[in-house]
Amino acid sequence: MTDYVAGFEDLRLDDADRAGGKGANLGELVAAKLPVPSGFVILRAGYEHAIDHGVHGRQLYALHTEALAAATARAQPQRLEELCREMRDLVHDSAIDAQLRATVLAAYHGLGAEVPVAVRSSAVGEDGATASFAGMNVTVTNVHGDDALLAAVVDCWASLFTPRVLTYRARRQMRQRPEMAVVVQRMVVAKEAGVAFTADPATGADHIVIEAARGQGEVVVSGSVEPDTYIVDPAGPTLLSSRRGTQDFAILPGSDGDRRVDLTAADTAAPVLDPDQVLAVARLAQQVQQHHGGRPQDVEWVFDDRELWLVQARPITTLPSRPQPMATAVDSDEVLVRGLAAAPGVAGGPVRVLRTPADGTALRDGEILVAPMTNPDWLPTITRAAALVTDSGGMTCHAAIVARELGVPCVVGTRSATTTLTDGRWVSVDGGTGQVRAATPSSAPARQQVAVIPLRHDNEQQPVSPATDITATRVYVNLALPEVAERVAATDVDGVGLLRAETLLTQALGGRHPRDLIARGEEQVFVETMASSLYRIAAAFAPRPVVYRATDLRSNEFRALTGGSRYEPEERNPMIGYRGCYRYIREPELFRMELAALARVRARTANLHLMIPFVRTRWELEACLELVDASPLGRDRGLHRWVMAEVPSVVHWLPEYVGMGIDGVSIGSNDLTQLMLGVDRDSEQCAELFDESDPAVLHAIGEIVGTARRMGITSSLCGQAPSTHPEFAEHLVRMGITSVSVTPDAIAATRRTVAAAERRLLLDHAHNSLDQRLR
User: What is the widest separation between alpha-carbon atoms in the chain?
Assistant: First the structure.
């Protein structure tokens, strides 16, 4: 142990102030003599030495003070983005001196020669009772070699300075300097991996739930496959039941990062785990719970060729207010279908099999909704259902999450419910056992919901409150960082309406200008890094849509990247200069790399789509779409192609754009307002002229939305006005806009505002209808 580095064996939970929450927790698991892959923590002191006391320390924290004020005011999001980018650049420019470098590398070499490791942020204070920061900072897996390790450590440090983290700190009134430890842990070559819950998260029952898949466990956590599920009685322990999942690919480590491997029928012929392995995982989970005083635990585990490893553990945050009873033995003929117990509660009623959300009006109150799967479009229907049963999905799928939030008993992954169950047949759905039984009107139970309560623990984030408003207008989120995807995806949001490429691109390039990377023949590095970040976001939100806006850095922003001065022009007005769609057709190399990354992700999850920004004319969009058609995405018929509507010319050209195959239009209200009114919104002298509710701006928005409605394409608006100005939201709703997209902290307020606007619109329609009848 040194001033800068500590092995896991030297840490305990009390060391969270210098090792961060993750590092301290891993130390506690090692202290319990549990099988944790070896590793060490670069302590907060290492960060202080390199960053606080480094060459840029004074400048960095002067900028931090300004950025925190900007985040508190929420008035200039672009300025906050600029400040955060500048701070991250300063961190990346800070040197790791010989002493710290030698200390870190000595600890790394102690793990083995160029051993692959996971490098994970462990920010000080991130696992507190009221401020978790979960998922906000960087994790890098399968890191090989000295230089790659040190680069990943700096990436973790730099991730403290993002708009999301600064906004979070501002809202929590956390004014102290952010500081970070970094976990470095030997990667296990996973043959099988997964998650174990020492109490059923859906029912609270006192049994162990194990989900398992082949390869690395991220496929279980992300929900990208249906894992095998095993139920274990802690007494013994004894295997009570098992259920085979469906997995057609696995994620395995490669020489240069993760790789996807398609699985054959022969690969998946046997269960993921044999009975001895199941019981071994159960015993390990029990040991973790016992060490933490009986507190229910969520455990991540991995089998390599020979051993079982514990790679993380944390408390379970939500359980039913009281455990639900286990299923009693029944005549096998009575059970019509079985699936995964996804949301607790019991309800009975007649079946209604629906194939698409458009059929939702056919569901009558009190009926059992049976569907192949569900997505956000089903929400209004689910709220009227007595219970929900689906063919596909697992305990972490969208149907399960929504049902738990709404208190609707739910069984998922039955595989055959839509064919076995028929309209009008009376059934009883038990969301705590995963069984759907035959019933009669006299025997079917009334709906019994089970309250789910949060379990407050010091090192776990609090669960998101259920949605209180269901809206026909979808509420999307603007996103820029993969580190926050899982957390934001767990909120009451219908998808990502604007995924900004710029942050992903600068992370993928390590602050370098893309043409410098191309000149060095490193295009594949960009594609793989970008695809990894995109997949993390798309998988977190699946099956909800994620709309990726291709890179729209202006020339002055590109110049700020390393080597940028060699490639970028100096423009007097970059805002209306060399950017967006026109740049793609003048310099198609970068755009081709972006398209290649999108194609790689869409091969794994089909909810990722493309949006082309700053389209000025028909001919440039036509040339741009030719580049898309020439890429691997050109053969992908499920890809939605959007245009961003920032330039007023879109009002004229939109019908032509639709004729060229555009599926959606997203209004960038900030840029559109600036260009409509000829005003810089960041100008102190002209700030009062910037008004998204100006009649000229509203007229342009109305024309765009009206054209989209007439031509049958999706329309959206990206900006904060719908959440902060109720009258603006009502204008959009009355226009018939399909969705709005806002920052994560504005999701709840926007949902409420839109819901209120929709209610007023319905009342107006009702009054008008009544007036007409009275006449």
Answer: 88
Collapsing DSSP to helix, strand or coil, 747 comes out as helix
Residue with tokens 């959606």, as numbered in its chain: 664
Using a 10 angstrom Cβ sphere, with 0-12 exposed, 13-18 middle and 19 or more buried, the burial of residue 397 is buried
CATH code of 99's domain: 3.30.1490.20
Q: What percent of the chain has pLDDT over 90?
A: 35
If asked whether residues 412 and 392 sit together in one domain, one would say yes
Backbone angles phi, psi at 376, to 5 degrees: -55, -25
Q: Which of 398, 457, 513, 609 is catalytic?
A: 398
Select from 630, 528, 390, 616 the least CA-distant residue to 536: 528
Spatial separation of the C-alpha atoms in residues 587 and 218, rounded to whole Å: 36
pLDDT of 456-478, one tens digit each? 333 333 333 334 567 889 999 98
pLDDT at residue 127, as a whole number: 39
Are 233 and 142 contained in the same domain?
no
pLDDT tens by residue, 647-688: 999 999 999 999 999 999 999 988 899 899 998 765 657 767
What is the CATH classification number for the domain harbouring 585? 3.20.20.60
Do residues 196 and 284 touch, judged by C-beta distance below 8 A? yes
Locus of tokens 């055959």: 416
664 inside domain: no
Q: Is 410 a catalytic residue?
A: no
Question: Shortest CA distance to 677 belongs to which of 655, 692, 663?
Answer: 692
Q: Where residue 364 sits, what CATH number does that domain have?
A: 3.50.30.10
The single residue listed with the structure tokens 């990377």 is 517
Residues 37, 187 contacting (CB under 8 angstroms): yes
CB 669 within 8 A of CB 720: no
Number of structural domains found in the chain: 4
Tokens of 498: 């604007």
> Which of these is catalytic: 410, 581, 624, 718?
718
> How many residues does this entry show for the chain?
775
92 is catalytic: no
Q: What pLDDT, in 10s, does the model give residues 678-728?
A: 987 656 577 678 888 889 999 999 999 999 999 989 999 987 677 667 788
- Residue-number span of the structural domain to which 650 is assigned: 474-655+724-768
Output helix, strand, coil percentages for the chain, rounded to the nearest 5: 40, 20, 35
Q: Evaluate whether 306 touches 389 at the Cβ level (below 8 Å).
A: no
Distance of alpha carbon 266 from alpha carbon 274, whole angstroms: 16
Report the distance separating Cα 79 and Cα 163, nearest Å: 10
Q: Are 174 and 112 within one domain?
A: yes
Tokens 């009190």 correspond to 366
Distance CA 316, CA 453 (A): 11
Model pTM above 0.90:
no
Beta bridge partners of 612: 643
